[in-house]
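Practice problem: predict the structure.
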Amino acid sequence: MRTRRPLAVLLAAVTAVTALVGCSSGSEESKCANKAGVIECAPDQRSAAPKITGDLLTGGSYDVSQARGQVVVLNFWGSWCAPCRAEADDLEATYQATKASGVTFLGINVQDSKDKAIAFEQGRVTYPSLFDPASRLALALDIPPNTIPATVVLDREGRIATVIRAAVTQDGLRPVIERIAAEQAASGSR
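Answer:
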């Protein structure tokens, strides 16, 4: 009987977080094109990302504002998530292929234990990940990811350009990133 109560509390907390995430997508999302779980916002419709900062899995802290001027790819993942395992190689390959053009990646580990998250990342990806077991960073976004895995692409001004609510592949993600990087470069990086 004792093990059922903590499990019930955990399930209630996860249900509450899921409900909040689902309810928080409002007018910002409606301004953008939504095609099969991929939300793309035109430059004049993009909202600024909230403060995205936290503790890194490997120690130390990180603040996404340090990457202003770069395209930032945020990937929300968990070690318990089979699609996260499936997309890890594609994310790393896309990171390696785009980092020379002013693109940086940041993983955001959610609903996980730190030990399992660190073990999952070893040998899979070379970019850093924040540890956010309560999913606070996802909840703070105007256009929340709503699923795990999910990928959010911020433009060079730190605005939400694309939200992908599914696992990604290199063939699907790389053109999105390159398009966002090119539009900013073509406009003179405002």
